[in-house]
Design goal:
The chain has 3 domains: 314 residues, P-loop containing nucleotide triphosphate hydrolases (Rossmann fold, 3-Layer(aba) Sandwich); 118 residues, Domain 2, N(10)-formyltetrahydrofolate synthetase; 80 residues, Formyltetrahydrofolate synthetase, domain 3. Helices cover 35% and strands 19% of the residues. Strands 1, 2, 3, 4, 5, 6, 13, 14, 15, 16, 17 and 18 form a 12-stranded mixed beta sheet that branches. Helix 12 runs parallel beside helix 14 and helix 13 crosses helix 14. The longest helix is centred in the first third of the chain and has 21 residues. The radius of gyration is 23 Å and the shape is globular.
Length: 568
């Protein structure tokens, strides 16, 4: 029998009225703003009230080994784990990022989970949801328009047109606009200059919204954003252009977390979606706060491998929120470990190499050096790790046991198989028991990877050597100048948000397993003064993806009844 598609599974479900989900959390009717029957926004007042009345639940971050281009089911595991926790009698919620339309219409597809562990409504989750991403894009591009308007109207702030650092954004992967010229067509069309476009989820506005604590904090963050430099090299902020207030006004609804539900009717908070490779890769602090105030345990997801999303969760998100994790879940698959062990080649959008279906314990064992390093990366923060072995039908008992042995040898508290994709929460009950036990012990000695007062270059070197296993970093002249300038301007205390490939522990996507004997090239460094971090650009990482030769959007359409088809 053919296993049903994610969309078919989602459509076969009967979602609870979202008002009922909200009431179970203790939210009052006036503290939610329904968007139809199956999704709603939670007011900031509701978050404040429930935080003041309830104890904080246990805080669990779900991360992963270095993934294949197909992904290893981290979102699915996050949802399945929350469903499993609810099945064993724990009040649990899931916090997850909203996907970008770029991947939805590109290669990766959506991010609602999969099989019998996903978020409902699946089609709305993967498309516009409540319009937050569009509001973020509008706020970001409003600032871009103010810059060019100021240049057009005699440039009263003395902005250097060649030193504008604020791009424009759109939430579609479009390589053709990575570098563009604006202002062409004569005097009335503005001042000609070169600029770039980024995908909206890489916007500093998105990052700031995900890290903010309330609307006034967001207003302050937007005001601090550096958009350009003057001819005298001093920074020009959004407050200098008097645009930060209007940007905030555009985000007064987007700042409110979105409440949805899992396939089994448990609460799911979906809010913000910064990319894990070019941004901080975590959902919003506000979503985590309302989840922690209304549940015994919360499962929040961090993007890509532990050296990326989890490191940024600990060093950026936890610094900003003041929250501290109790445990981490490391998602691993036999398929990915075989890849790291030298088996075949995984290409997104192409049928999986048959070699991955054949038992190969030696390759799993060889590839487990990646798992061991990622466990080590989480342990660097003194956080206990439980490995979730996301089981596929072709995995053999010997291969699964090899993963378990490698995980325990690397210091994981436990390594548990999970079949949540096919069995929903029932397939994650054993994992839920292990995670609950780990969270009770918690991380009383949690620590950051580096102190605030370390220099920017020292922080970069610490991440590269400790998280990636590099021998050091090579800083290009432009990057070195930027680092000195940011420290001179008073931004040296900020944490680091590395932008690099997700396909390797290193900066080089072709280096599998646990690379050694490499140095990390830093080609440039960007400042996100409002979001509150500095971003080194490693290797050839891009902030605007491109579409593949056969975009996933080719499969998306509507049927005779007007229903969306082809999402999965």
């Amino acid at each position: 029998m053919t296993f049903p598609s994610d969309l078919a599974i989602a459509r076969s479900a009967s979602p609870r009225p979202i008002a009922d989900v909200a009431r179970d959390l203790g939210l009052r009717d006036e503290e939610i703003e329904p968007y139809g029957r199956t999704k709603a926004k939670v007011t900031l007042g509701g978050i404040r009230r429930l935080e003041s009345e309830n104890p904080r639940g246990k805080y669990v971050v779900v991360t992963a080994i270095t993934p294949t281009p197909l992904g290893e089911g981290k979102s699915t595991t996050t949802v399945g784990l929350a469903q499993g926790l609810n099945r064993i009698g724990r009040r649990a919620a899931v916090c997850i990022r909203q996907p970008s339309l770029g991947p939805v219409f590109g290669i990766k597809g959506g991010a609602a989970g999969g099989g019998y562990s996903q978020i409902l409504p699946m089609d709305e989750f993967n498309l516009h949801l409540t319009g937050d991403v569009h509001a973020i894009g509008a706020a970001h591009n409003l600032a871009a328009a103010f810059i060019d308007n100021s240049l057009h109207h005699r440039n009263p702030l003395g902005i250097d047109p060649h030193a504008v650092v604020w791009p424009r954004v759109m939430d579609i992967s479009d390589r053709a606009v990575r570098r563009t010229i604006v202002g062409l067509g004569g005097r009335e069309n503005g001042t000609p200059r070169e600029t770039e476009w980024q995908i909206t989820v890489a916007s500093e506005v998105m990052a700031a919204l995900a890290l903010t604590s309330d609307i006034h904090d967001l207003r302050a963050r937007l005001g601090r954003m550096v958009l350009a430099q003057r001819f005298d090299r001093s920074p020009v902020t959004a407050d200098d252009l008097r645009v930060a207030g209007a940007m905030t006004a555009l985000l007064t609804d987007a700042i409110k977390p979105n409440l949805l539900q899992t396939l089994e009717g448990g609460p799911a908070f979906v809010h913000c979606g910064p990319f894990g490779n070019i941004a901080h890769g975590n959902n919003s602090v506000l979503a985590d706060r309302i989840a922690l105030a209304t549940n015994e345990i919360v499962c929040t997801e961090a993007g890509f491998g532990a050296e990326m999303g989890a490191e940024k969760f600990f060093d950026i998100k936890c610094r900003s929120s003041g929250l501290r994790p109790d445990a981490a879940v490391m998602v691993a698959t036999v398929r990915a470990l075989k890849m790291h062990g030298g088996v075949g080649k995984v290409v997104a959008g192409v049928s999986l190499d048959p070699a991955f279906a054949a038992e190969n314990v030696a390759a799993v064992t060889a590839g487990s050096v990646n798992l061991a390093k990622q466990i080590e990366n989480v342990q660097a923060f003194n956080v206990p790790v439980v490995v979730a072995i996301n089981v596929f039908p072709t995995d053999t008992p010997a291969e699964i046991e090899a993963v378990r042995e490698a995980a325990l040898a690397a210091g994981a508290r436990d390594a548990v198989t999970a079949t949540h994709f096919t069995d929903g929460g029932a397939g994650a009950e054993a994992l839920a028991e292990a995670v609950w036990e780990a969270a009770q012990i918690g991380a009383p000695d949690f620590r950051f990877l580096y102190p605030d007062d370390a220099g920017l270059l020292a922080k970069i070197e610490t991440i590269a050597t400790c998280m990636y296993g590099a021998d050091g970093v090579d800083v290009a002249p432009a990057a070195a100048r930027a680092l000195r300038r940011y420290e001179d301007q008073g931004f040296g205390h900020l944490p680091i948000c590395m932008a690099k490939t997700q396909s390797s522990l290193s900066h080089d996507a072709v280096l599998r397993g646990r690379p050694v004997g490499f140095r990390v090239p830093i080609r440039d460094v960007a400042l996100s003064a409002g979001a509150g971090f500095v971003t080194p650009l490693l290797g050839d990482i891009r902030t605007m993806p491109g579409l593949p030769s056969r975009p996933g959007g080719e499969n998306i359409d509507i049927d005779a009844e007007g229903n969306i088809i082809g999402l999965f």
